[in-house]
Amino acid sequence: MTDSNRTKVIKALTVAGSDSGGGAGIQADLKTFQELGVYGMSALTAVTAQNTLGVQGVYPLEAEAVAAQLDSIGADLTPDAVKTGMLFSSGLIRTVAQKFRQYGWTKLVVDPVMVAKGGSPLLQQEAVQALIAHLLPLSLVITPNIPEAEILTGMKISGMADREAAARLVHAMGPRYVILKGGHDEEGAQVTDLLYDGEQFIYLQSPRIATRHTHGTGCTFSAALAAGLALGHLVPQAVHTAKAFIQAAIEDGLNIGAGHGPTNHFAYQNRLRGQR
Ligand SMILES: Nc1ncnc2c1ncn2[C@@H]1O[C@H](COP(=O)(O)OP(=O)(O)O)[C@@H](O)[C@H]1O
Ligand SMILES: Cc1ncc(COP(=O)(O)O)c(N)n1
């Protein structure tokens, strides 16, 4: 094959932390990109020592190291879409936002990762304001879970009316779309994610799967969304695929490790190939 007749390679970038256990963070993102046919790139913000039992250590990188990774990518490998995960500190948030502006990366999914499922902080408390001030205005989509939406808005969320009110408040902070994920609402047989574009609410529902193996669900969902956007899909379409991807990944959980296990990143494609 010559260079000129090669089909275009679609590329996505994740700016996030490493999960040594492979279920969340940069590892979940790259696996998801790959499964959805997108070439994955990464800029690491922090290394975590982590497994299905919890987070044993957090080692953030210097802002200079994060900036250097983004410059290397910006100079040579323009991503078709970008997502952020664990950003840890206000200094790293400011660096990342400045680089996104410098390179004009606007197809941006912000997963406002704050706390790991086991309760360990992945974002310093003082960094929430930096997220709101510097990153939310640049983002195309933000994907908070219910506790994250509560912290961003300062409101207590119980019930759908509260979720709609919170989505409106987060939307007013700058993102074009808000997806308020419903995984933490453990009532009822359905899990409802709410998509808000500033005008309409769209409810994405799926059967709630009774499992403790949900480590990395948010990372995987936002990576699938970014992959769809990189492929040129519009947000409502990309969200549907992301929801189907995470549903399959949770349903066919891998059952590894003694704690909260990872989702199955192979599941969505295995189903399409009829290999369930
Ligand atoms: N038990 C579950 N059954 C089905 N889908 C789930 C379940 N838990 C989470 N999800 C889905 O996984 C994605 C991540 O949700 P959530 O758990 O709210 O976010 P986070 O992982 O950031 O805490 C959402 O699309 C949500 O609907
Ligand atoms: C490096 C890193 N990034 C993000 C998460 C959140 O994942 P989850 O809340 O789905 O366990 C995590 N546990 N580790």
Automatic annotation (TrEMBL):
One of its GO terms (cellular component) is cytosol. One of its GO terms (biological process) is thiamine biosynthetic process. It catalyses: 4-amino-2-methyl-5-(phosphooxymethyl)pyrimidine + ATP = 4-amino-2-methyl-5-(diphosphooxymethyl)pyrimidine + ADP; 4-amino-5-hydroxymethyl-2-methylpyrimidine + ATP = 4-amino-2-methyl-5-(phosphooxymethyl)pyrimidine + ADP + H(+). One of its GO terms (molecular function) is phosphomethylpyrimidine kinase activity. Residues 19-264 form the Pyridoxamine kinase/Phosphomethylpyrimidine kinase domain. Keywords: ATP-binding, Kinase, Nucleotide-binding, Thiamine biosynthesis, Transferase. Its EC number is 2.7.1.49, 2.7.4.7. It comes from the Bacteria. Pathway: Cofactor biosynthesis; thiamine diphosphate biosynthesis; 4-amino-2-methyl-5-diphosphomethylpyrimidine from 5-amino-1-(5-phospho-D-ribosyl)imidazole: step 3/3; Cofactor biosynthesis; thiamine diphosphate biosynthesis; 4-amino-2-methyl-5-diphosphomethylpyrimidine from 5-amino-1-(5-phospho-D-ribosyl)imidazole: step 2/3. Belongs to the ThiD family. This is Hydroxymethylpyrimidine/phosphomethylpyrimidine kinase.
